[in-house]
Amino acid sequence: MRKWRKLFAQALIASAGILVALSGATTSVFANADGTTNVKNDKVTVNPAHGVTTNSIQGVDISSLQAELNAGVKFYGYNGKKQDILQTLEDSGVNYVRLRIWNDPYDSKGHTYGGGDATLANEVKTAKDATAHHMKVLIDLQYSDFWADPAKQALPKAWKNYTFAQKKTAVYSYTKKVVTTMKKAGVDIGMVQVGNETTKGMMQESDPAKYMQYIAEGVNAVHKYAPGALAAVHYESPSESSFAKIAAELKANKVNYDVMGATYYPHWNGPDSKLIGAEKVITKTYKKKFAVMEMSYPYTTDDMDGQNNIVGDITNPPFPISVQGQSDAISDVWKTVMQNGYGKALGAFYWEPAWIPVKAGWDNYQYNRDISVKYGTGWATQYAAKYYGDAGYSDQEENVNSYWGASSYDNQALFDPHGYPLQSLLTFKKMITNYVSGSAKKPVDRYKVAKKAYAYTFNGTSDNFTFKKAFALSSLKGYYKINKAEYVIKRNGKTYLYYHITSGKKSGWIWHSYLKKCPNKITKTVKVSYKHRYVVKNKKGSVYGFQGSSNDFQYVTLHYLKNYPKTHFTVTRKTYVKKYNGKTYLYYYVHSGNGKVHGYVWNGYLK
């Protein structure tokens, strides 16, 4: 993520514990002085996101969590009681967490650089808790001691004097160390990200022919030491042209990655068409999996801890800046990803939904700043400046000096500043829907009940419905025809074929496996050695063709006998048919004298 893109136009002055923002933008950054908020109970209407199922990645990046917990931040459940945040996330439908890891985010005297104190030790703690709550883990290896993005990819201090060959070895060894440490801790590693937003290079190397060798080493280590995990690469500002160029370079440099990850913030990287274009290139042209590694959206422009927000007012916001707008942004991104991936879309991650103030209220800025220096809870501390300066990023050193403090992301969290979950967090669960994906060919066989189960009605629209029991199948007697057939994609991501029947006042949808097909079968055919001539006994009946195999055929009406009252028919064979109801009937195969009428007739219609 381009962490500093909004910072260049801002200078921050701390005076008497009050943070002053010097900016031409008109933002409400000084609201909520005591940190109170009235939005935690704001209800949301969740838009259905077709293609999103419980199998999709519904992830969150909570890399700063341990720093927050160490500083005393508390989180609560929807009932208002204190609760493990991982339990709340699980209750909300989250099934994956993303955790960034920096090599050594401390200076020589042990001062933290901040940024959530994303050390391996801290992320192992979160990863273990996530695994205990049935979530997979994406490890985001940045191969830096602090934020790595297109503006900066500073080498870890320990690797500063390494040769190119030594750097390659270091990437492989470090990747091995992290994944083996996680595995020993019992972490369910689902994916490992090799590099973070390496659009312009990695580890202070901008030549693709070189830095992609670093990526290749990391990918190879993932495949070797975490063979069940996907190896991912990650780039920002997705578009069809940019991702086509990147994918071609990866292929040319023989990087055997599994997943292409994109940064996609609707207010910075939109519109959706750019994301769709990038995803199409990766999934259709290069046959790789695709995921959005970072997205978020503000529910307010208010500041809640004294630290200016990285996103304040947005010109022409793609969604309302509200809890509802936040929910809409989530469902839109997931829908876009899952519907445009040619079967290779994985899902997305919401970035830092729990990075809330340590002590809510903008008049607590100095407290939050001091706590950040102690626990690393803020965006940065003053000690990160020298790291960037030593790496040759003088502009980033200047940014840190003017912009270190508390969280600048609290207005994009999915928890209010006191740790209570917003209703937008429930979007992860609520955007998963049952929906009709298309009509199936209506079967013409007869059916009967095969299992004790239920017929259902679909309550809602074909785009978003719930199942409601209509009646027990045990109440059905006899044989039934199907009047409609549809494919239903259920919340678990699997497709089911449902048949609709009507029996008297009963009407409902039945999973096809609860019905048993009752076909017509030919049990015996006897050729007639002598030729009898027959005429129609009455005006009932038809001449049929048998369509299908001898063990499963349908009747096809060819002629109506009432139209041939005086025609003489010649019988050439006798065929015994066991019909769907289990009874056996004798049919004659006949033809008229001129040969224009021929087919099967039930023997009772002829004399």
UniProtKB/TrEMBL annotation:
Record-linked InterPro entries = GH, Glyco_hydro_53
Do you know which SUPFAM superfamilies this protein is assigned to?
(Trans)glycosidases
Q: What's one Pfam family here?
A: Glyco_hydro_53
Signal peptide per UniProt: 1-33
Note the superkingdom of the native organism: Bacteria
Q: Which reaction does it catalyse?
A: The enzyme specifically hydrolyzes (1->4)-beta-D-galactosidic linkages in type I arabinogalactans
Record keywords: Glycosidase, Hydrolase, Signal
Q: What is its EC number?
A: 3.2.1.89
Q: Look up keyword Signal and say if it applies.
A: yes
Record-stated family: Belongs to the glycosyl hydrolase 53 family.
Protein's name according to its UniProt entry: Arabinogalactan endo-beta-1,4-galactanase
